[in-house]
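Entry type: protein chain
Record version: 2
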Amino acid sequence: MTSLFLHARALGLTKAAPTVDSDPIARSPRQPGADLQPHEIARLQFHSERGMPATRHAALLALFLAGFWSAEVGAASSADLDLTAGAVHTKGSTRTLARTCPLDEWGVYVLGLRATHLGRRGAAPYRLVASATSAPNVVQSSVGSGFGDIARRSGLSTRARKVEPRDITRYVARKILNETGQLSEVARHLGLSSLDVAAGLADLQWHTGGDAA
């Protein structure tokens, strides 16, 4: 309707704008994050290990905990791993920058097992958690589905409380901010060009008044 009357006004057929005084469309409020705690992360790790390294779940969770986003998790390959240095590289995505992220001891362990398992199937490099032949949107959906399996299996994602990949990212952001005290480190680790986005993920109210920087 808005487009119809906009065109009619442009042609001089009417001056009416019937949608100006219309009530805004009601939208559901944004649901708060799950605010995951260290013991819940440990619980996710425990349940992700079932069937590894034949299953991808532990490797998928390790990449999220390293600071990867869903698209980056799906694109990660054995060539991106530097297990000796305890790190994993990502080329970034349409919204994130290329970077190298540190792996904790658990991440090195599970990704090492996964890489070794996949290496027995053929020549490297190979994708760690998704098919290299699938379209990007299919890969991202598959990564989300895989994480959902872990969250439900752990009992953390229920009808009353939904746990999503972004909740892992928020946990990582808060952890980095607590350890370094630097919002720029949160942005760098997560491949973000915006400090505002980094602050939102870390639950930091960093503009306390006046004009935003």
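Comment: The beta strands are 81-82, 87-90, 99-102.
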